[in-house]
Amino acid sequence: MAKIRITQVRSSIGATKHQKAILASLGLHRRLQTVEHNDSPEILGMVAKMKHLLTVEEVK
Predict the structure, then answer these.
(1) Cα separation of 47 and 54, whole Å?
(2) Could you give the domains of the chain?
(3) Mean per-residue pLDDT for 30-41?
(4) Would strands 54-59 and 3-8 be described as parallel, antiparallel, or unpaired?
(5) Long-range contacts, stretch 29-33, CB < 8 angstroms, 24+ apart
(6) What are the tens digits of pLDDT across the range 5-35?
(7) Which of 17, 22, 34, 50 could form an S-S bond across to 7 if both were Cys, CB 3.0 to 4.6 Å?
C-alpha cells in the first residue's frame, strides 16, 4: 500500500464539530502539522471531506 503525507495548511477555527472530529481522527491538531497514513479508502474519504484545509502528497 502506498503512503500519503497530509498537512493541515488552514486553521480549523471556523470548522464544524464534525470537521474538527475528522481532523482529530487523521491525527491533525494544529496548523502546519504533517502526518503520514496509508492510502486506504477510509483515509481518502476523510481527506476528500477536508480538502479545503489540507494538502496531500504521495510519499515515495
Answers:
(1) 7
(2) 3-59 (3.30.1390.20)
(3) 97
(4) antiparallel
(5) 32/7, 32/8, 33/7, 33/8
(6) 999 999 999 999 999 999 999 999 999 999 9
(7) 34
